[in-house]
Structure formats: structure tokens, C-alpha cells
Amino acid sequence: MKTVAVVGTQWGDEGKGKIVDLLAADADIVVRFQGGNNAAHTLVVGGEKFILRLVPAGALHEGKVCVIGNGTVVDPIALIEELDKLRSHGCLTNDGTFKLASDAHMVMPYHRAIDRARETRLGGRAIGTTGFGIGPAYEDKMARCGLRFADLADFKSFSEKLERNLADKNLYLKAVLKAKPVGAAGLIEQMKTVRRRLMPYICDTAAYLDDAIANGRRVLFEGAHGTMLDIDHGTYPFVTSSSCLASAVFAGAGLAPGSLEAVLGITKAYTTRVGGGPFPTEIKGKLGDRLRTEGGEFGSATGRPRRIGWFDAVLTRQAARLNGVWGLAVTKLDILTGIDPLKICVAYEIKGKRCERMPPGDLVTHKIKPIYEELPGWREDTSDARAFGDLPANARRYLKRLSELSDVEIAMVGVGAAREATIVLNNPFLN
Ligand code: IMP
Ligand code: MG
């Protein structure tokens, strides 16, 4: 298959970055199609740790083309910093290996200020956003007052729009949110730098991808966040502001429906979420702390401790259905070593009734009791396993059960942070 999307089946942080980085070896082009620098992928390559926020994870492979599609919102300053860091590591040094959609929207300092001021104002009802201004930037896109990279071409008109937006946003910040306004000084100068630095990469990425696909190039679409953070199908209002499903590839990269051949769903062997909102299988106390420490479950974008829970098959079934998942990549299996017994949530009990699917509406308003199945754990170290048969019998049993309950075949299993620490059962690009 030549066009493959990778999406998260939980609340993000499933380890998509590692899988994208691995698959990028067999792809020609890697594309981001939604979200912004609220996403963060931690990758370990050659023993070195990289955190990517905006640039697709293909950047760590020489010669791959990295594309940021029109469905994203991009903080241009954060992008420049990320590009500089990658270049200092010898990545993306060839001309033409990075492309930025002219129609992608920019995240401005006033978006960040609004995001943070709103969260403060919400207090105990806060969403727990990453504070990077993603929601307010998408709001402006829909309100049709957003600034796009294409606008930089005519800098005079760009500056006028920016000043108008800034004046409006500052009124809102001061009068409604009771927050400090954003200073205008320096912003226009900063945008001149943005223009100079980013103009060479700005292009019609949808047309570029269309040509590339017609020419038989292999394209990998890198989803950010996860299905449960999707603006429509996630645990609203505790969600992000973009569509995180595989279907977002079509709008967010300008691909025609039907041209996506496979969707790989990434799922952690347990569940995590960062920020507020319902979490039916949450584990509190010592066991949760142990998994958090062993799994390094602290947000890559914000450093916040992630909440930990048992594997929830209701979520993965839902994600499999919404995304048309072809195969599952189960990550961080090694973290479960030594935990016995292991629990898997197979369904929910709501008002005494067994529910196989998530209830419609707001999960918070439902009193959900997870229905668990217990499986025996394993003690053997799994980190050197490179084939399914190398895994302890109970680990294989656990994985088979996850697959049955999610109704999707397992394509990959992650047993460590490094690129190599992966069991590949089925690589969609080689299929
Ligand atoms: P926002 O995307 O910054 O608006 O945050 C909205 C919600 O999505 C918060 O609960 C964030 O913690 C969560 N979120 C956004 N991006 C990610 C991610 O990449 N991983 C995990 N949670 C995320
Ligand atoms: Mg992440």
C-alpha cells in the first residue's frame, strides 16, 4: 500500500511518533494534517532523544520530504525554532525536503494569551489545554479572520490584518478575560523574520501530494492527538479543537476520499490522558504512580503528569470503527512487565446495563462502571523481543485479547522507546 495514515485510538500520547518514525523509513513523504504544537512526539534514535512538535517525524530520516498540511495551525516562531534545532542535528538540510501549506493558519501570541486566560478564568472547570493557543487559532479560522501563510506574500495587507486582529483580541482580553493585552511592539518585526525564513517553503501542498501520489510515491499521514480528543467524536468538551480521525486527512491535506489505502491505529498497552475530563478506567494510587514512572508518562509538550488507566477496549473499538483501522500498533507493552494480574475493560456498565459502545453525549454525565476482565501478567523482560514468538506466553495472550476485543489485527508491538524495539508483524507499506 502506498498511502497510509497513523492515528491515535485513545487520548493521544499513544506513541504515534515512534511508529511514524519507523514507517517513515519506507515512505517518501510524511505529512501532518491537523493540530499544531499542542502535539509532541518523543523519539529515541541512536540513543538520542528528540521532541518534535510541528515537523513530521519523517524529519529524522535523510531525504524524506516533510509536509505540514493546510489543516494544521502553526505557530511560526515555534516552527522556526524546531527547524533550526533539527538542522543543527543534520536533519532537513536538503532543499525541497520541507514544505508548508500556504493555506495553513498561523497561531499568534494573542491566541496563546486567550487560551491561557480562559483556562485561568474557568478554574476548576478548565479543560486543561496545553496553553499553546490552538483552540483560539482554530476559532479564528472558522470565524474567517485567521492569518494564513499565503497572506505573507503581501506583507502590507498582512500587517493590516494582523493589527486589526490584535486590536480586537486585546479588547476581548482586557474587557472579558480581565487579562493583560498582548504588546504590538516587535510583533510586525517578528513577522518579517517569519516571512523571510518561511517563504521558501510555502506552497500548494495539496497539489504537491496529488502529483506525488500520481507518481507512485509512498505517503505517510501522521495524525496528532487521538480519537478521544477529536472535536466531534471525542469526550467533548474535554477535547482538542481539530478533527483527529483518519478522515481529517482529506480536508487537512487536500487528499481525495478514496485515496487513503490503510489506517494504522496506535494504542498504548494501557491508557493515559493528560488534562481534564472523564477517564473510566483511571487507576489512582501506587499502581498508577508506578506505571507513570516506568512509562515516563509526563507530557512531552507541557511536562504535566499523565493520568494512567487500564486498557479500555470500548475506546479502541470505537476508534477502530470511526477510523476504519486496518491494523493496530500496540505500544509500551514492556511497561506492563511485572504487573499481575492485568485488567482490560471489555465494556461499561451504565445504570445496571452492559454497554459495548461509548454512551452518546457527555461521558461525565454518565456514571460509568468499567467491566473488567483479568488476565495473568508476566515477569520476563520483553525488551529484546523482535518477533511475536519471542514474547512470554502471557504477553501474547494479552495482545491477542486486545486484538479480539478491538476487532482489529495487530500489526506492530512496541517493547521499548528505541526505533528498533518494535515487533513488526505487518508493515502497511510492504503489504
Ligand atoms: P489543546 O489541544 O491545547 O486545546 O488541549 C485540549 C485537550 O487536549 C487537553 O486535555 C490537552 O491535554 C489535550 N491534548 C492536546 N494535544 C494532546 C496530545 O498531543 N496528547 C495528549 N493530550 C493532548
Ligand atoms: Mg504526545
Tags for this model:
431 residues, alpha/beta, Adenylosuccinate Synthetase, Chain A, domain 1, 2 domains, ten-stranded mixed β-sheet, binds inosinic acid, binds magnesium ion
Structural class: alpha/beta
The CATH class label of the largest domain is: Alpha Beta
CATH superfamily of the largest domain: Adenylosuccinate Synthetase, subunit A, domain 1
Shape: globular
CATH topology heading of the largest domain: Adenylosuccinate Synthetase, Chain A, domain 1
Average of the residue pLDDT scores? 95
Number of strands: 20
Rounded Rg: 21 Å
Tally of helical segments: 11
Report strand %. Answer: 15-25%
| Ligands present | inosinic acid, magnesium ion
User: Main β-sheet, in a few words?
Assistant: 10 strands, mixed
The name of the CATH architecture of the largest domain is 3-Layer(aba) Sandwich
Q: How is the largest sheet built, in terms of strand order?
A: 9-7-5-2-10-1-11-15-19-20
Distance between the termini: 6 Å
Low-pLDDT regions? none
The helix content, as a percent range, equals 25-40%
Q: Supply the number of structural domains.
A: 2
Task: Describe this protein's structure.
- With 431 residues, the chain is α/β, with parallel strands linked by helices.
- It has 2 domains: 3-95 and 204-430, Adenylosuccinate Synthetase, Chain A, domain 1; 105-200, Adenylosuccinate Synthetase, subunit A, domain 2 (Orthogonal Bundle).
- It has 11 helices and 20 strands.
- Strands 9-7-5-2-10-1-11-15-19-20 form a 10-stranded mixed sheet, with helices on both faces.
- Helix 3 packs across helix 4 (134-143) and helix 3 (109-122) packs parallel to helix 5 (155-175).
- The longest helix has 21 residues, at 155-175.
- The chain is globular, with a radius of gyration of 21 Å.
- The mean pLDDT is 95.
- Bound molecules: inosinic acid and magnesium ion.
- The site of inosinic acid has 20 residues, from helix 4.
